[in-house]
Design goal:
Blueprint: E1 3-8, H1 18-30, E2 35-40, H2 41-44, H3 61-72, E3 75-81, H4 89-97, E4 106-112, H5 122-132, E5 136-141, H6 147-150, H7 160-185
Parallel strand pairs: 1-2, 1-3, 3-4, 4-5
The structure holds flavin mononucleotide.
Flavin mononucleotide is lined by residues 10, 12, 15-17, 81-85, 112-115, 117, 147.
Length: 186
């Protein structure tokens, strides 16, 4: 089975976008779409970027482990909040510190806000950064508006049928790219 990492980008105290990350972890598990692992950038608590991993003399164990997990994943569901029209520094930090790990990595992006627009201002900036570093961003999007009304703290959506339908399409697109990359490797 292929492996999907759900990457929860927010490190904010009391964060809410991780509800969507929890939803994806559970949805992928329940529907047996892939082996799934949730990585929470808050757990890594990386220091602000000083240099890329490959140039660090004494990289932390955490960073080495993070790199290995990203490298081993066949695809990534990236869940990011919108902060002031962009994505959080925690995510930029994690993108910039790696390099080869992102190359040709299929990444499906879910943007989250507590307002009505579903974090849609984030899309162009995060897609551009990921494209620039060689990742394969999946065109399907998964914007989440009013996250606190639409997902509970365990990641259960208020409207399971509707959310499941959107998630199915979103993840099908990710899986298409994952399979395409796997075929090219063979
Ligand atoms: C610093 C900061 C800036 C924000 N800027 C925006 C914004 O530009 N647009 C928006 O829709 N929501 C904005 N919000 C609200 C977030 O979308 C909301 O807090 C959401 O829950 C953030 O995800 P998090 O809880 O995982 O940190 C902002 C929140 C913070 C903390």
């Amino acid at each position: 089975m292929q492996k999907i990492i759900v990457l929860s980008a927010s490190v904010r105290t009391g964060k809410k976008s991780n509800r969507v990350a929890l939803f994806f972890e559970q949805y992928i598990k329940k529907h047996q779409l892939a082996d799934v692992e949730l990585l929470d950038l808050e757990d890594y608590d990386f220091p602000i970027f000083h240099e890329r991993l490959r140039f660090l003399k004494n990289p932390s164990e955490k960073l080495i482990e993070f790199s290995a997990r990203i490298k081993a994943a066949d695809g990534i569901v990236l869940v990011t909040p919108e902060y002031n029209g962009g994505y959080p520094a925690s995510l930029k930090n994690a993108v910039d510190v790696l390099y080869d790990e992102w190359k040709r990595k299929p990444i499906a992006i879910s943007t989250v806000s507590d307002g009505p627009f579903g974090g849609n201002n984030v899309i162009t900036s995060i897609q551009y950064s990921l494209w620039k570093i060689g990742a394969l961003t999946v065109p399907a999007l998964f914007p989440v508006a009013r996250v606190m009304e639409n997902y509970d703290e365990h990641g259960v959506p208020a409207n399971e049928a509707f959310t499941g339908k959107l998630a199915h399409h979103f993840l099908e697109e990710l899986k298409w790219y994952m399979e395409a990359v796997a075929r090219m490797k063979n």
